[in-house]
Amino acid sequence: MSAKASPVSQERIRSIVGSGGMPIPAGDERPAQSVLSQRPKEPARRGRWAASGWPAAVGVSLTLVLAACGSTAYDNKPDGTGQPADSPANTAPASPAPDASNPQQAPTGAGADTTPPVEPSSPASVPEALAFTGTTVDGAAFDGATLAGKPVVMWFWAPWCSVCRAEAPDLVAAQALYGDKVSFVGIAGLGPVNDMADFVSQTKTGTFPHLADSDGSLWSRFGVVSQPSFVFVRADGTAETVPGGLSEAELKDRADALIAG
Fold it and tell me: How many CB atoms lie within 10 A of CB 153?
């Protein structure tokens, strides 16, 4: 047989409920359990941080910081060091390309080009006597520099000159004999270009070039004042002007002297 619970006094109830409890009206003699069951239920007390929402705010802040820094901050560890592959700690500085012009930096080894640089060749020296240009009797451009390197025989003539016409075969023979060692050039003046071209055709002297000196500039350049005349240019560029005609033998002697130097 169970014993009955003894009633709790109003004073005891008030001490239990405290200042935060529901006040019990005077004269209310209901059992204490009934009074306590009507007390408003307080929400479960949470920690100070949980009640203030701090964990959630911190979590959101960390998420934003990681997103701003990039997801590859420490998730790319190909070298096992915890650093990303493209971080400065794992990226070797690029080596500058070797300077081929600097012997100390020039590439070496089996694949290196060891051919010494080729020095630019200086242009052939052109004697002052051959530094001229002109036009041939058939209208082609002519540069005296092309004669450099060999002795030269210049024959000055006029299309109406009978002495010039008479010695033309000797010039043809000398050119055939010495042509590989001595250059021959005819310089015509004192007449129309058509007459000059006819002279070359009629005397069969077209085996070497003939210039049309219509303004007399080349005759003056070499000091020629009459026809026929000759100018002999040695290989060293020195020149000698000889007025008047030459026989075949004299012409050969002059050519031999040019070759001998």
Answer: 23
